[in-house]
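Researcher: Quick sanity check before group meeting.
Model: Go ahead. Protein one:
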Amino acid sequence: MNTLDFSPLFRTAIGFDRLARQLESARSLGDAQGYPPYNIEKTGEDTYVLTMAVAGFGPGDIDVVARENVLTVAGRAPQPEEGRSFLHRGIAGRAFERRFVLADHIVVEGATLENGLLQLGLKRVVPEALKPRQIPVQAGKPPAQPRITTANEQEGQAQAA
């Protein structure tokens, strides 16, 4: 029985804490949900790379869909070539579907498939409205506030004129 400690993932992967919890619970379900294997790597302050081992699949066999906060990677089993006879088949070629729950403001920047590894670039993009703003403090008088007049004051000003 393997015991895996995911606490380093909780500490280092900003935006993936929910994903780490789901990964930890999925591990307890067994190896059936472990295909295809994948890595999540933090490559910068707000950038990540999700790498999946998908040997035997071509770009036309894989669909990557990002909808709201869910990233879905699905692979259709490649059609076996006629005339091939395997004595041992250790490279899995079965269909798969993996779903990843992404934290808020995580966007998929692109996907590449090379040497049997599918790499998805992920980036945390916080909208300007949600970023903290530095408010400059100035010395001197406070800026003049516009005075709000009531309807009674407006009538009095109109009669005086």
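Researcher: Fine. The other one?
Model: Protein two, sequence then structure:
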Amino acid sequence: MDELRARIAELQARVRDVQVRLDLPALDRELADLRSQTEDPDLWSEPQRAQALMKRVARLEVTSRTWATLARAIDDAEAMLELAAEAAGEEQAALLAELGTEVTGLERQFSSLEVALTLGGEYDDHNAVLDVHAGAGGTEAQDWAEMLLRLYLRWAERRGMRSEILSITSGEEAGIKSASIRIEGENAYGLLRSERGVHRLVRISPFDSAHARHTSFALVEVLPEIEATDPSVEIRPEDIRVDTYKAGGHGGQNVQKNDTAVRITHLASGIVVTCQNERSQAQNREVAMQVLSSRLVARELERRELERLALKGVHIEAGWGNQIRSYVLQPYRMVKDLRTSAETSDTAAVLDGEIDEFITAYLRSQMVLAEGVE
């Protein structure tokens, strides 16, 4: 009983701490102000502003309601504990068993909600564009890149998110040289931004007749999906070069006879995006422009973040210098995140898309880091 009392008290203290950090009274005032704005009859004359406003209202409502509900549930658990203290024998044992299950559930709920607090970034609620690039090493690295692509497609499927391959470049013998996919779902970018960096694979190569152990690398990039018409991004016609070419399926299948695939080069930054998955050139161009907007925003976000962390003495390597996770299949089985030390020996599950453990560990580490550098 004393253990349950201590767990409930700790939960109450942690919830109060979060409520102070959230500043719920200020949040409720903002919510009231935003609700009054939604009553403006001219609101929908600016659809983008209206949609952003409604999304903000919905997010604040969920935050306010969820934490208030959790606090009440913990108080109810405390009251139930007092009832159990007054009971005796089998009745008390039954109440304590029920309460133990309830408190465990509340602890898990708190943990989940606490992690969700890290998903309040400017673009965290956006869909994501995820790119996979094979490293040096030919077929071995290209096969690893395709394994990673499947991992993220399976992750999206497990979460009930919609995924779409925007472009893919096949390897000469197996695998892929690169691929770009769009993942649509709640907080897709906020969750997947934890996957940015270099992923390392160690295994016995299926392509080596000597059965030697090989190390392969692949780079994962994650961007928030930004509409091409977003006012935060201005792309003038003279800023880009557009090339068209024939689209082909993975492995050379379903090659189009017409130039439907589109490649857009942003001249000032050198950013190149392609799209070949849509049925028409116009559709591919529209998607490519959207991805270009996303890349430009992501570049600015990265610049700001690196600048902010540099002021605090925190250094993060960009691109191929930022190795984040190791997947070892031989001589033992282990997936380990090099940033958080989260690890598992269930490599098959991870490669089948079960990466939430790593995502959660990363988000928790960022929560601690944010508290230390603010």
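Researcher: One line on it for the slide.
Model: The radius of gyration is 25 Å.
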